[in-house]
Amino acid sequence: MKKESFKSFLMTSNQSQNIDTLIAASERLESSYEIDLDEIVSTETKAQKLRISVYFDHELTPLDRKLYPDVIKSYFQFIHNATLPPLNFKTKV
Questions:
Q1: Fewer CB within a 10 Å sphere, N or C end of the chain?
Q2: pLDDT, tens digit, for every residue of 40-56?
């Protein structure tokens, strides 16, 4: 994860008040899933699959279940300068 660049991105985005929370959550996400955010958001499909996994991971704390999708969405936007579309459970991801 490009921590400092991501932090700068969050400062200029509409999530500036949640910077420390999102940075900490991104570090926990990488640690608990043993992944690198740069790799996991390299494609929309990979990012969406992780978002779905997070929604159904009942071993996460309620706070992490709320924050991890926000981290994935924000990091995808940071890397691709594009918004990650909302999940649509009716279509195959």
A1: C
A2: 899 999 999 999 999 88
Q: Taking 90 as the threshold, does the pLDDT of residue 78 lie above it? A: yes
Query: Which two structure tokens, joined as six digits, stand for 71?
Result: 């981290």
Tokens of 49: 């699959």
The secondary structure element, H or E, covering residue 80 is: helix 62-80
Half-sphere exposure of 37 (CA within 13 A, CB side): 28
- The token pair at 20 is 């420390």
Cα separations in angstroms, 44 against 16, 22, 49: 24, 20, 9
Q: Compute the distance between CA of residue 56 and CA of residue 17 in angstroms, rounded to an integer.
A: 27
Token digits for 18?
């949640």
